[in-house]
Amino acid sequence: MKRRAPASSLTPDQRMIFALLLAAQAATVAPLLVELPLWVPGITLFLIGLRALFLWRNRPTPRSWVLVLLGIGAAAAVLAQFHSLNGRDAGVSMLLFAAALKSFEIRSRRDLIVVIYLAYLLTVAHFLFDQSIPWVLYALALIVFVTMLLTRLHAGPQPPGWRSLGYVGLLRILAAIPLTLLLFALFPRIEGPLWGRPAQSQNAVTGITNQLTPGSIARLATSQAVAFRATFTGAPPAHDARYWRVYVMDHFNGRRWVQSPSARPHPGNLQPTGQIRHYSLLMQASDRHAIPALDMPLQAPARARLEAGHVLRANNLIDGTREFALSAASHYVLDSTLAPGARRAALQLPPGVALQARALAERWRAADPAPQAIVNRALAYFHDHAFYYTLRPPPLHGDITDDFLFKVRRGFCEQYASAFAVLMRAAGIPTRIVAGYAGGEWNPVLHYLLVRQANAHAWVEVWLQGRGWVRIDPTSAVAASRVQRSAANSPGVATIGEGLHIGFVQHWFNTLSMSWDSVEYFWNLTIVAFGPQQQRAFLQRIGLQSGGIAQALYIAIGIAVLMLLGLGIDLLRRSAAPADAPTRLYRRHLRRLARSGLRPAPSEGALDFAERVAAQLPQEAEHARRIAALYTQARYAGGDTKRQTHRLRQLMQAVRETRKSD
Predict the structure, then answer these.
(1) pLDDT 10s digits, 462-514
(2) Is cis: bond before 296, omega within 30 of 0?
(3) Minimal CA–CA distance to 245: which of 304, 302, 313?
(4) For 633, which of 149, 211, 303, 372 is 20 to 30 Å away at the CA?
(5) What ranges in 39-197 are assigned the alpha helix state H?
């Protein structure tokens, strides 16, 4: 005979709780569809739906050996996908499958409690992917809902209504805030994410890469993703000085710019000649080492270094929100002398490439060999000829430099930077390309500069005798009348186009957007980016020592204080003799009558008081007598659970009807 699965001993109310718990599980898993490989949350949602179908049709669940095989298969699939069962993505995937398969084993109230705890764990696990304010609010709603289910499961035969359960769930979450804040502020912090560096997620942050090809920056032109935010000590830089260098590329193969493999590791000799700006950079996760730096970074911050091209690199991947304290020179001389190897790299051009551009540069050089004169001729060439700046450049074919300079003449910043660099090198001027960000939106609420991925930009640096590397932005040479905003209706363009005429609705939208970004900035700065350095600074500000032993002592003292406070509140509640459900409803009725001046005497029973109410307020006679009778039955009459629940519902309905009649 085949062995069937054990019969479920769930009551009707517990079955309802189970159904709602499955819905909560699905709501927790759904956001992971964009974080994990689609098959992981997809299979999990399928298993949850299948379990809900079994529950609805009251069908027996699969046997234990089937669940064991499914668990082994899930582990094998996760191992094949991630090559490990450890780490963020693999660990969360295993947790999803474990929670879904565990729901098939629910037979009793104890099993329900286990799955409820798994639902809590699933909700918290999502914070490994997303710590934004919308997810926090969504997670809080899920936690309150799951807490309501847990409270109802422990409520006994007379559970409170769903509104009361909602209040209880919310109050319990609020009661946990003091301990949460204590641990957040004092628990020793570690660098990096909780489970080591996570694998790049499905929706990895897109941004500038370490190579420049046609269209590589134009694809970011409408992206509203935040790259970083910067706060300044003193006034922010003027708009035309907001250049943030990320990558410096000096090797060209005819179509793509990259950093030369033989680039010297030394960043260069920098001589500041102007104002020094100090600022703080709050970066979003990029899964890269690059740190955008305002031209020109003076030195590397903690846990970072300066590399060739005078660019900043973090020692570890920036896989979370990070804050850096930086400084920059507004005027400077970088590499007043150029080594022979660096000069050769900055003049390199592949043979047989850009023949027309080479000929044009030779004519300029023959007319006036002065490097500054050649630079001015090239800028005038872009301005005076029919070049167009467009957010949607047409594709370039064949020799991309000649095709752009003499045929297409429509492009984004990377086409102008590449063509300009080729012209300069062909004229004998050392040149390299810099990719980074330009501009930014000033937030007047919290006074910081917001730079989005839409601010991605490319420009060039030419080396001039006595001046070193000089920044030239060839895109700015295009006449303003020939700027084609082919994506002008997109949000990305509206935010970066300073001086662009916008209507009232757009102005209102931008104001609202910046206000919300202020909230996100404050959240990221004070919560998400609260790492070891920020914790040490916080403890110093409040006069406490940092260190494992000292912080452990503070935590122990704080927990002891909270426990004593909670014990005192509990003793006060116990001394107040909390009422049962019928008494709470009856007291609600008494509070209503008290507004009419009627209160029961200390020794007056409910039925006697109802008769006195009927004598003094004849219009209340029917309601008062009915509520008194229902209260007496619900409070003192015996019977089974079903009958007691029915009486309590009748009393609740009578009290509600009386209140509605006011």
Answers:
(1) 999 989 999 999 998 886 655 554 433 333 333 333 333 445 666 677 778 77
(2) yes
(3) 313
(4) 149
(5) 39-57, 64-82, 88-102, 109-125, 133-153, 162-175, 177-186
